[in-house]
Amino acid sequence: MSNDPTTPVPAPVSAPDSPFRPEPGDRDLAPQFVLPLVVRIERAAPPPRTDALETAARAVLVMLADERSAGDGEWARAMRDWQDARIRKVVRRARGAEWRRAGALPGVTVTGRTAEVRVFPPVPLDGWPKDLARLQVSGTDLADPEPPLDADPSAPVLWLNPGLDMSAGKAMAQAGHGAQLAWWELSGAERAAWRDAGFPLSVRTADPARWDGLTTGGLPVVRDAGFTEIAPGSCTVVADHPALARIE
């Protein structure tokens, strides 16, 4: 799928050393961490692509909102270390015994309509637990049996770039980046409302005619660092939450 050391970049970037700046900075000198996500893909019943993307995005939000990720929680130090460096996410796939072993490690499993994604607290870039390190990053494509329904305009939508061809894993990581950028843009009350509602969201491919407007309308935009699959600086996802400025 996607070993995804990409750099999501909100527009505009105001902090002098934002974790989403594309240029090298102090954060590149810090120890690098990665947020692991594992999607369950059984041979006989792979999940639909859109369901997997949406479930991955919700998994990132669940990890960000978990009480263990804040304050003195057991995952808080790892979350701080991860966010002090570049924000990286890697999606791997598992089935059968692999999935059961992954489920025994500390983390949270998030279930969509049929998709299952387990998210784990961040780990050092070169220090993965062996039961995760052995999982495959590439080799399985996902498809939607039928075109997804139109997105609910009253709920958050993560808009994918219609001009890019991304693997399922790459798109899952990018959707996770988009969800994280939306989360960071919200107030505490808005975050709590989203969390309490179960993090409803949609992932859809944008209409090509609207894409330029989406990327220039002040909404959070993910830009890829270009390490895998697509060119550096490519806009991959626009995060459109009802609490943020909307594109007409």
Automatic annotation (TrEMBL):
The Gene Ontology terms for molecular function here are: hydrolase activity
Origin species: Streptomyces lienomycini
- EC number annotated for this UniProt entry: 3.1.1.29
User: Which intervals of the chain are annotated as region Disordered?
Assistant: 1-28
Q: Which transformation does this protein catalyse, written as a reaction?
A: an N-acyl-L-alpha-aminoacyl-tRNA + H2O = an N-acyl-L-amino acid + a tRNA + H(+)
What name goes with this protein? Answer: peptidyl-tRNA hydrolase
Pfam families xref list: PTH2 (PF01981)
The protein's superkingdom reads: Bacteria
UniProt keywords (A-Z) are: Hydrolase
Query: Which spans are transmembrane here?
Result: none
Q: Does the keyword Hydrolase apply?
A: yes
Q: Does the keyword Hydrolase apply?
A: yes
Question: Known InterPro entries for this protein?
Answer: Pep_tRNA_hydro_II_dom_sf (IPR023476), PTH2 (IPR002833)
